[in-house]
Write a structure and sequence with these properties.
Distance between the termini: 98 Å
Oligomer: single chain
Low-confidence stretches: none
Order of helices and strands: HH
Radius of gyration: 37 Å
Shape: rod-shaped
Helix content: 55-70%
Mean pLDDT: 84
Number of strands: 0
Number of helices: 2
Length: about 110
């Protein structure tokens, strides 16, 4: 009779230990997958930060150069369409009509 009680206690104890091991295993598995996801997000954010830093550097350079005469001239020409005195601007109307640049079309 006492052996049956001991066997019941041992099987119950083994069952509890088994559930605890399964619980710990699942918890470790979930943490591992969370760490992988967080690492991927971290790399993504680092790439975005590097891109933004490059953009900031380019914009800072433009701000520094904005006081130069060359920058003012470039803005006046490109954005405002201004020209120097006695300067003639030629516009090529056939720029997009060049037969050597267009692919050959098959007429069937």
């Amino acid at each position: 009779m006492q052996k049956k009680k001991n066997k019941k206690r041992l099987s119950l104890l083994n069952l509890i230990i088994g559930f605890l091991l399964i619980y710990v295993g699942l918890t470790l598995w979930n943490q591992r997958s969370l760490m992988k996801n967080l690492e991927a997000k971290r790399k993504e954010v680092q790439k975005e930060v590097q891109t933004l830093e490059k953009e900031i550097n380019v914009l800072s350079k433009e701000i520094e150069d904005s006081d130069s005469l060359q920058f003012v001239e470039k803005v006046a020409r490109d954005e405002l369409g201004m020209v120097k005195p006695r300067e003639i601007i030629y516009i090529d109307k056939n720029k997009n009509k060049n037969p050597f640049l267009n692919p050959i079309k098959n007429e069937n």
